[in-house]
Structures are given as C-alpha cells and as structure tokens.
Amino acid sequence: MAFLKGQIRKALSGFYYIYAEGATFQTRARGNFRNRKITPLVGDEVMFESDNPTDGYLLEVFPRHNELVRPPVANVDQGVVVMSMIEPNFSYNLLDRFLVTLEDKEIAPILYLTKIDLLNGTEAVSVDEVKRVYGEIGYPVIAATKANDEEAVRALEQYFPERLTVFMGQSGAGKSTLLNKISPDLQLATDAISESLGRGKHTTRHVELLPLYDGLVADTPGFSSIDFLEMETTELPKQFPEFVEASSSCKFRECMHRKEPGCEVKSRVEAGTIAQTRYDNYLQFLLEIENRRPIYKKK
C-alpha cells in the first residue's frame, strides 16, 4: 500500500474521507487509535495508507493547532460569528462569550450582523454602536443591511481563501441561511425561529469541509451557545485584545483588572476607551470560571 499525507474532509459512520493529491480516499482508523485515546477530527492533517480511493487505513494524526468540540473540527483558522440585531435581540454577553472562546483557540473572529432591515430605531443596541465597539478592537464587522445582501456576502467571501472557516452565533440569527447563500449547493436544513422558545434549530448531523473560494468551509452552523469557559482565571484577560494592549501600563504585572490599584484597564473603562459592556462581561466570565458553573445573562 502507498503511504500518503492528507486532510480529513468528512467523518461519517466510522469512515474518514481524506483529501490527498487531488482525490478523496475512504479510510478507517486502526484499532490502536481507541487504545491511544485518539479521536480523529475533520480538519486533521493525517498519514494514511491506501491502494485505491475506497479502501485505506488511517495511520497517524499530526499535532493540531486547535480544536473545537461543537462542531468537532480541528485546525480552524477563523470563525464567522453570526449575530442578529433583533429576533433574537443582539446580546453583547453572548457575542463576547464566542469571541473569548475563539481567542482562546487562536481562531480569528469575523462578526456578521443580520436582520438590520427589521430594526425600527427604538432598540437598546444600534448597529453603529456594535461596529464602533468591535471595530476599535480590531475585529472585522460586516453588517448585512437586508436579508439577501449580496454586498455583505461578497465582503465575507474575501476572507475565505487559504483558510478553514467555521460558523457560529445565535440560534435563529441566520447561520444556515447565510451558508446557503454563500454556496447554494449546501442546502442546509433551516427552520423558522420559534417565537415561544426564542431560538431556532438545525438538523446538521455531521461535519464536512467544502472547498469554497479557494478555502474550506465547515458545512454546519456550528454551536449556538457556550455553557462553560475551559480556561483558568489567569488566562481570561489574555482573550480580550484591548485588555492585553492596556495591561502593559498596569501597576501590577499579573493584574486581573478587578480590584488592583493602578489598573490601566479600569482607567480606560472609566474614560470610555474600553467598552463598559466588555468589562462587565469580563467580570461575569471571571466569576463563572471561579465558580465553574455557567451563568448566562442577556444584555
């Protein structure tokens, strides 16, 4: 058998479909993977052996740069966080939760705002405010001004080349609809948002990486909530880029930006150069990690 290097593009029913040398090979994992407690993931770079595209064995999983649990994907480059401005209402808390998780995994975030055309101007949060807060941090913010905003979709597609992209965000915000717009071939099942539950649902059962715009996109809307922050308290401040930038001027080197004197982060919050919502969410996440139980409150 020939030994080849490739990337797992799909995992289904115990088979791993590996892309290598311009072709897709159907493989199975050797039994020792289970003994070694190794679970191959879509996105993994691997070594396998095969004589033909329908019969092969996965031999080795190379070290990962990162991995996500929902969806189960490895070596992700960027995450598109889809947030609705209304129905469901925009939540700073939920968005920051996604961003902290992405930063912790060293995944570059892109914000995509939807349902802007449904706003009437009386909402608590404006599009301009969201664009200002997160644009100043350095995150790309794309605002879809209508349901089928071709300009916004084109703006998003420019980030795809040479990168592995996953989607995530609020349930009911339009993740599946956006993926279908980007690639009509996906035909992801979508359901109308449930008014009684305030959330939507999807029926994606497995993850597959699809070549799109010279990159790869996971064909799943991904997760819609984050119930637990898997990090230590000392790691949390590092996931807020504006905190990292300010912390070099803090009096204490390991400042947690909570009760310490001479804290530059707190000074910038008071001055308005760091958003109060970001700081409030940071304090809540810090409490969550200390208590090790999920606390979710919409803002």
Automatic annotation (TrEMBL):
Pfam families named in the record:
RsgA_GTPase, RsgA_N
Q: Which HAMAP family match?
A: GTPase_RsgA (MF_01820)
Subunit and interaction comment: Monomer. Associates with 30S ribosomal subunit, binds 16S rRNA.
Tell me where the signal peptide lies: none
Q: Hey, which family's this protein in?
A: Belongs to the TRAFAC class YlqF/YawG GTPase family. RsgA subfamily.
- Ranges of residues in domain EngC GTPase: 74-224
Tell me how the cofactor is bound. Binds 1 zinc ion per subunit.
**Residues annotated to bind GTP:** T114, K115, I116, D117, G169, Q170, S171, G172, A173, G174, K175, S176, T177
Taxonomy, superkingdom: Bacteria
Membrane spanning residue stretches: none
Q: Check the record and name the Gene3D superfamilies matching this protein.
A: Nucleic acid-binding proteins (2.40.50.140), P-loop containing nucleotide triphosphate hydrolases (3.40.50.300), Probable gtpase engc, domain 3 (1.10.40.50)
Any keyword GTP-binding? yes
What is the purpose of this protein?
One of several proteins that assist in the late maturation steps of the functional core of the 30S ribosomal subunit. Helps release RbfA from mature subunits. May play a role in the assembly of ribosomal proteins into the subunit. Circularly permuted GTPase that catalyzes slow GTP hydrolysis, GTPase activity is stimulated by the 30S ribosomal subunit.
Q: Does the keyword rRNA-binding apply?
A: yes
User: What EC numbers are recorded for this enzyme?
Assistant: 3.6.1.-
Which GO biological process entries does UniProt record here? ribosomal small subunit biogenesis
Q: Which UniProt keywords apply?
A: Cytoplasm, GTP-binding, Hydrolase, Metal-binding, Nucleotide-binding, Ribosome biogenesis, RNA-binding, rRNA-binding, Zinc
How would you classify this enzyme at the top EC level?
hydrolase
The protein's name: Small ribosomal subunit biogenesis GTPase RsgA
Provide the binding site for Zn(2+).
Answer: C250, C255, H257, C263
Q: Which cofactor does it need?
A: Zn(2+)
Gene symbol here is: rsgA
- Cite the CDD domains for this sequence: S1_YloQ_GTPase, YjeQ_EngC
Q: Which GO terms describe its molecular function?
A: GTP binding; GTPase activity; metal ion binding; rRNA binding
The CP-type G domain covers 65-226
Which NCBIfam families does this entry report, sorted A to Z? ribosome small subunit-dependent GTPase A
The places in or outside the cell where this protein is found are: Cytoplasm
